[in-house]
């Protein structure tokens, strides 16, 4: 039986994989094919990337636009946190669909199914299977087919910390790799992302998170090798969803637009700014379309804005003007080092919820060089041990690569199977 195991070390940028802190991943790179130009989507946020990995499509197609985003409800722009447990179910009620295209869980449901163990936000975890084709285990609730809750003794009881990542990995290996053997098993670790959001990149706490995450990867690698020794055909994919940059300042875009006369008040819903860390999605109600020109001019002059993409050009970054999305903004970033010598800093957009970003710690979401530098290593049929692939690959290539290994069709996807690029 052919199987795929996908392991994600959330938030790990590829330049931080070093022998001193992550020796097991360095060793694995000599037995796997490594992708030197592997990129993520925009915003470079876990909920968006989870949906893109699950569907093989950019946000324009799957329609989960951001970690926070807007839905048009009864003619009003309504802001949402896409990380809450019920967001995708609410989105289905409003729009008729949770995600606009099929997920891997749906595609493999008849050939062994999918099992997901995740220690990130509920919205990111459930984006892998919002419609209940397989099994998703998460601290906010674990579900089987039909989204029927898994009995409490068998649910996943963890916290977003290193110890829980260790316990979750142990259970994943026992139940998924060795036990139930689904067609697709996904292990999504919360670290090093969780630590990077609260500790400076390069600090002792961060380096320990890298070491612990490296150990979790090695535990899965050893388990897969044990199965392969029994002649099982397993494609092992280990990677990350995005990188991090160091936060240097927090910008209140709502306040800035109010002061410029382009938004009625900070809580008003004429113009809504959805913060996505080092990026922002700006939605404009149709009744206020006469402000679009002034908004564009203001953003072009804003010292805090880096790359600005208007509605007509959203397709160039894998987005679309769904729900009145008018502008996508990547905050200003540079290559400067932080206090620990880790390069890459960025401004961040203040969230409307009031959740504070920690200055000097990590964040992501935009087009900064390091947040757009996740890593990917693949071991199995169709991939050459020790080879470094220089051609571009993106997170939307994950799903078709999995389906190609399982000998399933890859129709309707933006990505392409990576095996085809390495063979011949």
Could you explain the architecture of this structure?
With 424 residues, the chain is α/β, with parallel strands linked by helices. It has 2 domains: 2-64 and 99-243 and 372-422, Alkaline Phosphatase, subunit A; 246-363, Gyrase A, domain 2. 28% of the residues lie in helices and 24% in strands. It contains 13 helices and 22 strands. It has helices spanning 23-29, 46-55, 59-62, 87-95, 104-107, 122-126, 162-180, 193-198, 204-228, 253-259, 292-301, 398-405, 419-422; strands spanning 2-9, 33-35, 38-39, 68-73, 76-81, 114-118, 135-137, 143-144, 148-149, 184-189, 233-239, 245-251, 271-275, 279-284, 305-310, 325-331, 333-337, 343-349, 362-363, 376-379, 388-389, 393-394. The protein has an 8-stranded mixed sheet. A 4-stranded mixed sheet has the order 17-18-12-19. Strands 13-14-16-15 form a 4-stranded antiparallel sheet, covered by helices on one side. Helix 1 (23-29) packs across helix 9 (204-228) and helix 7 runs parallel beside helix 9. The longest helix has 25 residues, at 204-228. It is globular, with a radius of gyration of 21 Å. The model has no long low-confidence stretch (mean pLDDT 97).
